[in-house]
Amino acid sequence: MEPDKSKIIVCRCEEITLADIEQAIAQGARTLAAVKVRTNAGMGVCQGMTCRRNIERMLQGLEPEDSAPHSPYRFPVRTVSVNDLSADLDKEDCP
Question: Whole-model pTM above 0.85?
Answer without folding.
Answer: no
